[in-house]
Amino acid sequence: MRTAIGLMGEEGYEGTSTRDIAAAAGVSVAALYHHFPSKLDLLREFLYEAHDVVNGRVAREIEVAGPRAVDRLDAAVSTLIWSNLHDDWARKAALVSWREHGRLDGIDQRLIAKKRRLLIDMVDEVIAGGVAEGAMHTDDPRLAASAIVTLCVTVVDPFAEPQASMAKVIASTQHLAHTLAGVDPA
Fold this sequence. Notes:
The protein is mainly α.
């Protein structure tokens, strides 16, 4: 699966054949089909797993960030950015996740959308908590959460290599998230 997603990240779904995947993984096409009946089945499994892993990671980091909403928001943002940029494969996987989920059939698209909503729910809860504690000022925590999650998952630019360090990308995105959530400037 890792090999397939790496290839799809480079060449796109249509540009990656099952023969390409099998050859790059060092297995026969028959062995690949034994594990994944189709390229779409492989993509589907990856998307489910990737969303579960990222959602779990974000939930854990929010929890350990402590009680302050601003710290929890920063943890969510940094975890999402790190998940998408920590290495070359993560960048490719993020591209595949962002641009190829529409290939799934209706029910699978709805299930992936549900997993994405769970991520927005987590950030929404953080922002609503920040509003309740007076640390954030927005009339629509859900809209702010949606914008922040979208910002974080689209940080992978499909047109160029990242020009800034991950620390700079995280800091810049956290600043934008603070603005969207209405965090009082320090």
